[in-house]
């Protein structure tokens, strides 16, 4: 078989394996243990066949590619074995047999580490840190706020009107944009505007060291959400939890189908559940998450333009002792390509010098001394700042937006700048 045809056969087999893997996870979630076991076994055979095809590809690969091909083979074999283990587990659950606790499986294979019975169970509760963020607290992002209102909040608060027009909210929301641009703050505001409990989860909350623990925690998370009845689920660093399948991580190859199955389960749920993902790398998200009914609304949260930077710096300076002649416009012009987090950091850094001057006066006995933030303090702080956003990452994000047929916002020119954009 020619190399191109061989590679196409490998790709087809891998995609079949992933689809069967996803079906098995859905069947297991629905309590169909016998069907799940059969699907896991079929997925194991497909992964093994993909590994065989990859071995054939190795024969024709260049020397510098050999290591990568071999890693792919090892990875596929490991996933195939894990599918067999999941099939056995599904069969045991369907038959009511207890899990083997030590040693080896009846087939003589070494057992995969499992969490001990009676051990600590994963628990998820809504965030209650007292941070009541509202839309009016967020500077800029007006278009993003409007699309969130149209697609997420108003379908809940004005449900009767939306039903009258037969307008569906179409699933969850993907917030994407450079780091520090305000994605998490916007998610908190959505939860508060909708008056719903807020479940915030990161990759470290889900992935564990035990086999099957990530899937178990994912199920526990969404069980807690269903128990709440109405809630917002916010998965930060989504590129780590919902990454493209077929990569090096066998954990993620199992977790993604489980996560997809849990999200799909809300289409028949009577409560109001908003699923939101946030990422700096949308191009690393598995495409299966982006179809209609899952994360149908894509919302770009860009870097602040000049008007937003000016407003944010003024807002952050409120209540701080500063000179009345500060040139906020100059600072806003000189902070192009900085994120909202960078600007907040800039204002904090500009406070250090007047704080130190005040301390020196107090230590010298002048306890009545009152210093203020000066223009020089802000410019000195700016000189020590390093932009945290990689422009190459923004270019990659814009290329992904073009590929997804999304409108790319105009780049900032002069003082006007492009506005925040949501799609």
Structure in words:
The chain has a five-stranded parallel beta sheet, sandwiched between helices. It has three domains: 3-94; 135-300, 3-Layer(aba) Sandwich (Rossmann fold), CATH 3.40.50.300; 306-388, Helicase, Ruva Protein, domain 3 (Orthogonal Bundle), CATH 1.10.8. By secondary structure, the protein is mainly alpha-helical. Mean pLDDT is 79; it is low at 100-121 and 414-423. 52% of the residues lie in helices and 6% in strands. Helix 1 packs across helix 10 (250-264), helix 11 (306-317) runs parallel beside helix 13 and helix 13 (340-350) crosses helix 15 (375-383).
- Write the element-wise H/E pattern from the N-terminal end onward: HHHHHEHEHHEHHEEHHHHHH
Please report the number of helical segments.
16
Question: Within the largest sheet, what's the order of strands?
Answer: 2-3-4-1-5
CATH superfamily of the largest domain: P-loop containing nucleotide triphosphate hydrolases
How many structural domains does the protein architecture include? 3
Kindly estimate the percentage of residues that lie in beta strands according to DSSP. 5-15%
* CATH topology label of the largest domain: Rossmann fold
The best one-word shape is: elongated
List the helices and strands and how they pair.
Layout: H1 3-29, H2 33-58, H3 66-95, H4 142-157, H5 159-164, E1 173-176, H6 183-194, E2 198-201, H7 203-206, H8 213-228, E3 231-235, H9 238-241, H10 250-264, E4 273-279, E5 297-300, H11 306-317, H12 328-333, H13 340-350, H14 352-363, H15 375-383, H16 391-403
Parallel strand pairs: 1-4, 1-5, 2-3, 3-4
Helix pairs in contact: 1-2, 1-10, 2-3, 4-6, 8-10, 11-13, 13-15
